[in-house]
Fold each of these.
Amino acid sequence: MQFDRKDLGNEQLIQFYRSLLLPRMIEEKMLVLLRQGRISKWFSGIGQEAIAVGATLALQPDEWVMPLHRNLGVFTSRHMPLSKLFKQWQGSQDGYSNARERSFHFGNKDHHICGMISHLGPQLAIAAGVALAAKLKGEQKVSLAFSGEGGTSEGDFHEALNTAAVWDLPVIFLIENNGYGLSTPVSEQYRCKDLVDRARGYGMGGVKIDGNNILSVYDTIKGVREYCIREQKPYLIECETFRMRGHEEASGTKYVPPHLFEEWEKKDPVKTFEQWLLQEHVLDEERIGRIRENIKEYIEVELAMAQESSPVQVSTERELADVYAPVPDTDVPDVGLADDENKKELRLIDAVKEGLDQSMQQHPNLVLMGQDIAEYGGAFKITEGFVEKYGKARVRNTPICESAIVGIALGLSLEGYKGMVEMQFADFVSVGFNQIVNNLAKIHYRWGHAADVVIRMPTGAGVGAGPFHSQSNEAWFTHTPGLKVVYPATPEDAKGLLIAAINDPNPVMFFEHKALYRSVSGGVPDIYYETPIGKARQVQTGSDISIITYGSGVHWATQYAAAHPDISLDIVDLRTLLPLDYDAIRASVERSGKVVILHEDTLTGGIGGEISAWISEHCFSILDAPVIRCASLDTPVPFSIDLENNFLAKARLDACVQKLLAY
Ligand SMILES: Cc1ncc(C[n+]2csc(CCOP(=O)(O)OP(=O)(O)O)c2C)c(N)n1
């Protein structure tokens, strides 16, 4: 192997050697611990260390890295205390994730490392988001994300690279091509000759290098870093290497032809570098021995420290509390304090717009992203005029890539920005689902960073838009701890809840019913105010039957009440579906003893099932009849207006009420 020292001095080369040897020796120790059953799972990076180490050394310590499961060298090269890393791998309370995460699935803001989720590809967009933050701040920084060659087959790879190219983001995408994705060889993974060939297709530069040569890796990434900062562009690097052990330690290597191990053994990154240092008289055997001895001792001392960690303290209260970041107290008035005199009549759509507009003024760090939201003003014109007011840096048209945009919003939040993502229609959230439910929702519980992101979801049926522009999919998210799910029914709530959602540091799914946008009007305070998340609204009180509902259901219920003045209806508008306002639900059940839960979402698995279960569990003694769910049919949303009317829950509301009255 050819090493080119360029202008690196001897001491620097020795430092590189130490940095390269450290993860190798830690891993050798880990393999012993694994055999002793003291750690649960281990993905070996043996033979690939030059990539993680070389890349990290080429960056500044405050530049974000998005590593994967084989990148121990990133963590060691960022000087994370080894005892704490051991505690993490052992599953100790005082590791990096409160014993909630395993192996390398954790991050740490102080070290500018963003923890992976198992799904691999999502890391790439987060790196793009951090790069966007650097660009917006005018900082001279890059971010760097790792991908295996297997991970490049994921849509996330395409979306992140394409968006980074279109937005000119200073981010380095680094592929570690180690020959196999679990047992899948490259011939069954992709058809292009080299993965780096894809760079041209994205309109970015790319280079393929020997990933086992620490000096090539270091020098290439150093140069690419300067290029990305200078040109404000992304870059793709493919590092050729080989996985010398099984996918993870239990899975073996039977599918790998043995001669490949022999060939790659000769290219071992640690041994070849050591050999060259000896040859160049930078090191001699004696100093190598001392370095190894030092590292060995360091590992033993740190391991002994790790073994002293206290047993996991199980506290259900703490577990539940850590799912969400605390919401800081603000002096923003809540809607109850808003001055009635200063209300003006607005349609729901205008109230959303006003809430967003005032939030943009309030938060200079708020960035809006979505398809066609800039000059065009968005599919529903909510952001019309925003580009002129706030500029294209903060009001960003996106390519059609929901997953990348949600990931970018998370990356922005790592650097102190607030992100608002507009789904063009709530239906399209399905292609951004993974980032929302696995990354945004879980990150605070996993390693303490809150995803400060609001996802606006124009939702619902009633406008003859067919199966893919009409769905109610809020229940996909109410089942996900870590998200908040908000669903206003009136203009006043739409503005106040949107402001509260943007002020909330947690990820909020914000549902806006399209059919209500222009059909519902009401008084809206002029001021910047919040409607508190998690508090239901008592629409009217009554004693015969409770209708517990939200969104369009609120309007169906009030229309029904107006048409049936002889029935005393108690109507609750939930406003927030996660967390639910159980006090308001109980109070309503106490007043009537009979409950219809009404929603536009389909019946099976809808939030109505959850509320019904809670009422029967907690309010059994005050019920006078079974809880009834009034929901839409368990079919996709049909296009024809006649079919749609039959589909919607409204068609069955009277039957449900009559059934309950008969008890
Ligand atoms: C979306 C997704 N599908 C499948 C898996 C299971 N899985 C974990 S790692 C892996 C192979 C990854 O290969 P590659 O990206 O080349 O990285 P390497 O493990 O070789 O470093 C697979 C299939 C996963 N983690 N995520």
Note: The mean pLDDT is 96.
Amino acid sequence: MATGINAQSVAQEFLQHANDEQLHADQIAQRIVQLGGEPNFSPDGLTTRSHSEYVAGESLVDMIKEDLVAERIAIDSYRDMINYFGNDDPTTRRLMENILAMEEEHADDLVSLLEEFGA
Ligand SMILES: [Fe+2]
Ligand SMILES: [Fe+2]
């Protein structure tokens, strides 16, 4: 949905982040299977299971701001999960720590974009 003069670089960043998020979903699903569980891929209830909500931005800057909110929610969620796993499941905790580091990079990328736009 990114349009306008700066759209290409922002769309590129969004695409990179979306690919990273897909990777996270795959990694977590794989870990759930390793632990003998069944990942829930059903689209039913996806929005109620999500920690963040979908908000369509009106402008490029709005979209980046909404995305930043979602990244910060993800950061809080992964921090909570890392605390929850503690020393009980170091492998899952390490996976979550790696994902958390990437979410922090995402948030940082978005803050940089907002600064470029003077927002
Ligand atoms: Fe992610
Ligand atoms: Fe992210």
Note: Residues 7-34 form the longest helix (28 residues).
